[in-house]
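pinned: reference chain
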Amino acid sequence: MTARPLLRIGPVRRFTRNLLSPVDLLGRPLLLKYTRDPAEAREEIRGHARLVRHYRVPALHAHLRVPGGRLLAYERIPSGTGQGLLLDLLNTDEPSTALHTYLDHLTTAYRDVILATARPTDPAHVVRKLYWDRAAPGGRLDKYYAETDFLISDGFIDLPISRLASYTLNVNGRRHHLDWAATLRWLRAHFATREPVWAALTQGDPTDVNLADPLAWFDYDTAGMNSIPGEFANFLWYVSVLGGWLVPVYNPAAFADHPATFAHVPANRPELRRADLDDATGIIHIDYVPRLSAPRRAAVTTYWNQLVLPVADRLRLSTDLANLLRPYLVLRILGVYHLTELDPDDRLVLLARLVEAMSPAFDPTTYFSPLESPCPAP
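pinned: its structure tokens
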């Protein structure tokens, strides 16, 4: 009879600044998370404690200081290559019965907790990491764009972003204007106000890699009272843009255990059809075909119909939903990836998405789940 090893350590994976590794200790399956930032580790521990009575979260067995950071030992939920996450239910050609069932459970859980805990909240008392801190002086928005000028799209439209306000943008046949500097000022000012926001208890960063299958929530450093519009914008933007396109392209290591993600990037990556500048008329033409795979479209549609609309209706937010979502969406567009780190065609599409989000005609019902239709003829 072969004795079982007392300690078995699996492969180490890097997620942003953190390291994760599955471990079997005395026959108990654990997930070890090594966090370098002590403040982030403290927020993770507090966030887990906030959620544990309201959401299914793995048990936190222990946490201790180690050289260079802090080590947290969680219950390990069964998973494997290509399984165990919402991501895996989205990495298919068509929505499955399992995906629809999962989305029903997800939206029901969120709806119940959000409506039970929702209240107008001073912004000083909401989780600030993903929005307020990024827009604050010295935050990510400043680090990315303060005192920085860059070309709209090298090789396509060699115009500095600072001069964009002088031109008309024709995006897929619709005319827009965007003042880059004014947009940054507006965003900073919005998140500098003390006006109360509707907030509720959530995990705060609801990505398809932070949601387990069967349903559970991972990653707790943004858990707590989160802005409800910010929560909605985060999920909708991640599922419709980041998870299927930008993150696998620019951070492929995050999907090492879920390789089917890469096979589905073409179904989620927009196609740039036209990009040119007509100096005679002062018009920048950008035509692109938005793409979203059928499973991701199903996730966005279900989330919108079964969570966003009922919560907005109950809290009487429906009439101003587009304006409530807009600042959070714009900060997601600008504050995750630095635009200059993207390939020129990806940067141009993201700028087009920014222009559409800032438009007075912004309609989230079509913005997050676009119909795949040909671009207008030039």
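why pinned: The CA atoms of residues 146 and 184 lie 9 Å apart. Residues 7-75 form a domain with the Phosphorylase Kinase; domain 1 fold (CATH 3.30.200.20).
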